[in-house]
């Protein structure tokens, strides 16, 4: 039998690639999340709740019986399980330690304190009194968000003291100094502690009140991936990744850049969401998913950074709210030569609303071109039209 790979909480996107490399594929998945496509691709499957403590022995026995020494996931929800499993298989604790630093935003800020990367003031909020202390420490405005949140859910801008009594602290939150400037995400892959930044991705946000922290789009451009700007971000983020203990695997780190410097917003030990790996591939030819599979299975991999040959971007559609019978224009958009993918929600005699988080957006288009990709994305937006009732 050839090389093997173990996946946890994964689907067709990763398993299909793994099989194309000729790998023996082992899958652990929750029964409620398991797709028939993924099960068909796997050579051996264990369906169980990998978050349940009672299943730890079953999972480890299964993996050892299959000869798996390391599991891979790029799913946010499966990252904690992958960390403890890899610690058990390697008789170490570093995977869980690093996973907790990037998951727990308060712990990450504590870890960065006193270093060049700890240049964002913050305060842990577990009560109304903590919230008042945060306001006194940070001033207005400041950001308030769950300490373990994902997907831009429940992220708020607190603008004055009149807002404080309206905030019900029901979970551990983190209050952070508001940083202006443009926001970027840094897509990197690390091998044996050596970090390679494959792309700097520029982020844009929706401009209406309820979705001001929800991503409207992302662009990988030549402009942001060359010269002094890229060099400064590359140096800063690679230093940050080393500090928090990243040794191998994909990372997605969000930063804001202002005149005074670069500020870490948050980081994740996985690829970016919002189809960012697809943008990186269309821009550079580097497939972050394949790198992760090759690394986890022991196959040779080329982690060399490649230049941006095409400007690539994704735009999440923005429509006026209302009752619609349907959306039209998808087929015209698909015919455009620079369009790589387009996805629309199935809306038939349904309400159309603006997003409040990453999970409530109304479809997207991905474009790649040697020309100005932002204008291509905007053209696609004009061609998709709601039919209002």
UniProtKB/TrEMBL annotation:
UniProt xrefs under Gene3D superfamilies: 3.40.50.20, ATP-grasp fold, B domain (3.30.470.20)
InterPro entries from the UniProt entry: ATP-dep_AA_Ligase (IPR052032), ATP-grasp (IPR011761)
Domain (ATP-grasp) ranges: 109-297
Keyword ATP-binding: yes
Superkingdom of origin: Bacteria
Protein keywords: ATP-binding, Ligase, Nucleotide-binding
Family matches, as Pfam families: ATP-grasp_4
Keyword Nucleotide-binding among record annotations: yes
GO MF terms, alphabetically ordered: ATP binding; ligase activity; metal ion binding
PANTHER family attached to this UniProt entry: ATP-GRASP ENZYME FSQD, FUMIPYRROLE BIOSYNTHESIS PROTEIN C
Annotated protein name in UniProt: Phosphoribosylglycinamide synthetase, ATP-grasp (A) domain protein
Organism of derivation: Serratia proteamaculans (strain 568)
């Amino acid at each position: 039998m050839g090389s093997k790979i173990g996946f946890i909480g994964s689907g067709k996107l990763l398993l299909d690639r793994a099989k194309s490399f000729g790998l023996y594929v082992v899958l652990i998945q929750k029964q409620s999340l398991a797709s028939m496509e993924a099960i068909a691709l796997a050579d051996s499957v264990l369906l169980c709740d990998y978050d349940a403590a009672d299943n730890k022995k079953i999972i480890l026995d299964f993996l050892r019986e299959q000869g798996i020494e390391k599991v891979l996931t790029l799913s946010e929800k499966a990252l904690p399980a992958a960390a403890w499993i890899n610690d058990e298989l390697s008789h170490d604790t570093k995977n869980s330690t690093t996973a907790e630093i990037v998951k727990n935003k308060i712990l990450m800020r504590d870890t960065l304190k006193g270093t060049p990367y700890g240049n964002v003031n913050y305060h842990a909020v577990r009560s109304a009194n903590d919230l008042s202390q945060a306001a006194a420490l940070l001033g207005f405005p400041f950001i308030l968000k769950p300490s373990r949140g994902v997907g831009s859910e429940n992220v708020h801008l607190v603008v004055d003291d009149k807002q404080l009594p309206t905030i019900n602290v029901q979970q551990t939150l983190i209050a952070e100094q508001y940083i202006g400037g443009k926001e970027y995400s840094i897509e990197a892959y690390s091998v044996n502690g050596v970090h390679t930044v494959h792309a700097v991705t520029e982020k844009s946000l929706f401009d209406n009140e309820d979705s001001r922290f929800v991503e409207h789009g992302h662009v990988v451009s030549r402009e942001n991936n060359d010269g002094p700007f890229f060099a400064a971000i590359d140096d800063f983020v690679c230093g940050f990744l080393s500090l928090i203990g990243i040794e191998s695997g994909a990372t997605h780190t969000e930063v804001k850049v202002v005149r005074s410097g670069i500020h870490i917003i948050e980081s994740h030990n996985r690829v970016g969401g919002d189809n960012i790996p697809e943008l990186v591939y269309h821009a550079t030819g580097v497939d972050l998913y394949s790198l992760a599979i090759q690394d986890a299975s022991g196959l040779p991999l080329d982690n060399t950074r490649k230049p941006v040959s095409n400007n690539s971007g994704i735009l999440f559609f923005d429509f006026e709210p209302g009752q619609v019978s349907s959306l039209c224009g998808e087929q015209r958009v698909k015919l455009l030569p620079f369009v790589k993918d387009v996805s629309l929600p199935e809306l038939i005699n349904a309400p159309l609303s603006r997003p409040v988080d990453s999970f409530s957006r109304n479809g997207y288009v991905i474009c790649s071109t040697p020309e100005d990709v932002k204008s291509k994305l905007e053209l696609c937006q004009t061609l998709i039209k709601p039919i209002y009732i």
